[in-house]
């Protein structure tokens, strides 16, 4: 492998994508949001009424699902079968279901294969839950992010309400706790800190401080 891979894992709403995006811009790496892929699958399953215990329906669905990341001037859009679903997948009804869908073995096998392909040639930063443990166990740099659950919920609540979504802080707190529980306890590649990951607790750090922290780690090894 000649490309450089940075894996950023951690709990829900720790600011992984914010950091990954900023870092990708600074280092001129490609950024891949693996969570968006699981969200896209979840949207498809909801729209097509796929029962989560119907293995045949799940396999057929996975064969029909094509996910693309399309960079445009402002941001990278995520497309599901050629439809831009970037905004749709951020909604609460997707967040409420995504961890259940992500725990399905066939779903993970399909997504991990695509993620490995996306990271096979370019320098990339990928964020998720199992990037440093399962997708790229040999990643050059692994960061594991955590933050105080209250800080995480407050940030996510602000983000959703600013977009006009009708949620309460309690709903957000409950959603984060549920997802963290399902993600950490599932049988198939659960959320775990890789042994060689560097922990970044950003409860009291500005985005700039987080960026500097990771950039310094990168400069040590590049
Ligand atoms: O990163 P984000 O919060 O958008 O991810 C949504 C959900 O997708 C997570 O709660 C988790 O259930 C699932 N996920 C996963 N493995 C990844 C990335 C996300 O299981 N690598």
Summarize the structure.
A hairpin with a 2-residue loop joins strand 4 and strand 5. The protein has ten helices and eight strands.
Structure description:
The structure is a single chain. With 222 residues, the chain is an alpha/beta fold. The chain has one domain (5-221): 3-Layer(aba) Sandwich (Rossmann fold). It is built from ten helices and eight strands. Strands 2-6-1-7-8 form a five-stranded parallel beta sheet. A three-stranded antiparallel beta sheet has the order 3-4-5, covered by helices on one side. Strand 4 and strand 5 form a beta hairpin. The model has no long low-confidence stretch (mean pLDDT 96). Bound molecules: cytidine-5'-monophosphate (C5P). Residues 12, 34-35, 38-39, 98-99, 102, 128-131, 179, 183 line the site of cytidine-5'-monophosphate (C5P).
CATH-assigned fold name: Rossmann fold
- Sketch the major β-sheet: 5 strands, parallel
Mean pLDDT: 96
Strand arrangement, major sheet: 2-6-1-7-8
Termini separation comes to 14 Å
Top-tier CATH class: Alpha Beta
Give the % helix: 40-55%
| Count of distinct structural domains | 1
Number of strands: 8
The CATH architecture can be named as: 3-Layer(aba) Sandwich
How large is the radius of gyration?
A: 17 Å
Keywords: ATP-binding, Cytoplasm, Kinase, Nucleotide-binding, Transferase
GO biological process, one term: nucleobase-containing small molecule interconversion
Organism: Sphingobacterium puteale
InterPro entries: Cytidylate_kin, Cytidylate_kinase_dom, P-loop_NTPase
